[in-house]
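User: quick one, sequence for these tokens?
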């Protein structure tokens, strides 16, 4: 295996704005492990500290770093999400103007989400038609206006899932390697929720660079496995090209069996998993992402899909705001 420095060497030339509070805790879930009859660890990426925490802060470390290096003074993104709310907070802290284009008119927005945007001084725009064309038209109009005002605009992918955002999870993978080195615990399986893809892309590239022997399993939050795998492959290849490293796409593993009735709709298995994590470990999961990923983990454990001496790492990617909506 290469040294951990190989990851840092790859990341070195990309500025990191250090928004996340890391390393995040990794520890054994002892009661859940006894209950499931296998050795389960958790990486608390919900506790990345800044704003509402979660995996988005890791992406913002590099996205804000890149925006500042490019001397941007304005950020723009779309949709009310954990990414756009944390981006709004990060932009403010670094003195950037932040514009977010929301889907639907003002009266249709979630009041808690709006309160956070207002707290962070975000400039909100509303694309009142709900179609993708309406959002694109409003986006193009606003970005055109900002450029006419000679703003230096930095565009943020709605989930922070572009090549620069992916660097955050290459860095997170380095933390996993560091933990393994210090503790002597090797993770045979790593399980997490996958949506806009940069989390899994970063982890997979971190694995490729370091040659750490593990299987990274993305539990799909919304897409069929073949579609999600292709999205991951595309971003991973683009990012590998940017970094000038090889990427082995045979490592991409996605399981779509735990989406339940659909994206953002509660599933019975997800709710059971959420209850188990809360009751056994006092760990809170959300119903859109982490609860469903945990349902996959529990299914694997119950169906003896982990072998006896394996260590499994569950990455808790956040979703904290979803707990209060
Ligand atoms: C809590 C949570 N977990 C996981 C994900 C998926 O991460 P990614 O979008 O990088 O695939 C998201 C994305 O929105 C999320 O909010």
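Assistant:
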């Amino acid at each position: 295996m290469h040294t951990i420095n190989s990851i840092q060497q790859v990341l070195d030339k990309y500025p990191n704005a250090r928004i996340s509070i890391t390393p995040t805790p990794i520890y054994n879930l002892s009661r859940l492990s006894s209950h499931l009859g296998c050795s389960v660890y958790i990486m608390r990426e919900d506790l990345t500290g800044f704003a509402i925490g979660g995996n988005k802060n890791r992406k913002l470390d590099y996205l804000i770093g890149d925006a500042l290096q490019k001397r941007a003074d304005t950020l723009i993104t779309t949709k009310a999400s954990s990414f756009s709310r944390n981006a709004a907070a990060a932009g403010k802290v670094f003195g950037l103007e932040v514009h977010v284009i929301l889907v639907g008119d003002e009266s249709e927005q979630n009041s808690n989400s709006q309160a956070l945007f207002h707290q962070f001084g975000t400039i909100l725009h509303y694309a009142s038609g709900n179609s993708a064309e309406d959002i694109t038209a409003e986006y193009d109009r606003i970005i055109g206006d900002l450029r006419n005002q000679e703003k230096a605009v930095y565009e943020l992918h709605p989930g922070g899932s572009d090549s620069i955002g992916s660097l955050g999870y290459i860095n997170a993978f380095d933390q996993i390697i560091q933990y393994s080195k210090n503790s002597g615990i090797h993770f045979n399986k790593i399980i997490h929720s996958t949506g806009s893809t940069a989390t899994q892309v970063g982890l997979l590239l971190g694995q490729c660079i370091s040659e750490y022997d593990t299987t990274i399993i993305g539990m799909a939050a919304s897409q069929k496995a073949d579609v999600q795998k292709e999205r991951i492959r595309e971003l991973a290849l683009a990012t590998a090209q940017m970094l000038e490293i090889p990427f082995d796409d045979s490592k991409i593993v996605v399981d779509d069996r735990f989406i339940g009735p659909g994206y953002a709709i509660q599933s019975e298995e997800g709710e059971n998993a959420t209850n188990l994590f809360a009751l056994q470990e006092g760990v809170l999961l959300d119903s859109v992402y982490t609860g469903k990923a945990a349902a996959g983990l529990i299914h694997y454990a119950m169906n003896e899909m982990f072998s006896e001496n394996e260590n499994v790492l569950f990455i808790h990617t956040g979703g904290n705001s979803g707990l209060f909506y």
